[in-house]
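Today's session is about reading a structure prediction critically. Students often jump straight to the picture, but the first step is always the sequence itself: look for stretches that repeat, for charged clusters, for runs of hydrophobic residues. Only then move on to the predicted structure, which in these notes is written as discrete structure tokens rather than atom positions. Here is the chain we will use throughout the hour.
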Amino acid sequence: MELRVLNYFLAIAREENFTKAAHQLHVTQPTLSRQIADLEQELGVKLFVRSNHNIILTEDGMILKRRAQEILSLADKTKRDFLQKDEALSGTISIGSGEFRSTEYLAKIIAVFHKKYPNIRYEIYSGNAGNIRDYIERGFLDIGLMSEPIDMRKYNSVNMPLKEQWGVFVQKDSPLSTKDSIRPEDLNGMSIVTATGDFNQSRIGKWLGSYREQVEIVATTNLPYNEAVLAKENIGIMLSINLNCRYENLRFIPLNPILEVSTALAWKKDQIFSATTSAFIEFACQYLKGISNNKL
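Below is the predicted structure for this chain, in token form.
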């Protein structure tokens, strides 16, 4: 299976037409058809259902489309890493980040590092800890800003200098809006909108304790903004960390007992990074240690 042929396959899947894909790829249609026929024979599956007007991916074709996109993305990243070996640091650093207040520190690190090495580009991927760990393991991300705990058997990490505070966002006319803090019993019988994950085993599930079974999870999302949109429509109370963001008609109230989570910048152990990424990791560690030592 050649990368060139995977590119051909993705072009056809995108255009849904052999003629248009051949024109885009600057190859003849018979050549393109032959390459796809060879690929189908190699894999032992049919990739397309053909008609007079367009083509549709089969179930196997949809699986290959997803895999081909990942393979070509990783191949492109590998190529970029090898091109970053010159003395003047350049290239691309791929960073995954959850939505945290500590993301502000990540942005400060990038800003200072970028002034020093202006030829470097940054690819920022937003997701939850599970997404980011998965992408690091598969080689699509170099570094991730994640909530703790971090698996120290797999990752090296450096702690961020602040903790994220959990609370609820409620509508301003809610009976809860007059409270200074929210206790587990205050949520008894309430509908909840919160982050994606195993609720019962999550920090918030443990915080609720015996009231865990007395709340209804009506929706989960992986981005706080989406939670806020649902909460604004009164679908449920938003259980989230405080990002110091203002959401129209919503008020943040901290939890009691206080629930906080630490975050860390993490990267895979024993990973061989490009010179550019290695320099960034070293700089980030020194920057954050400087903050901890009140030197910055």
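Discussion point for the tutorial: Residues 143 and 281 are 8 Å apart (CA to CA).
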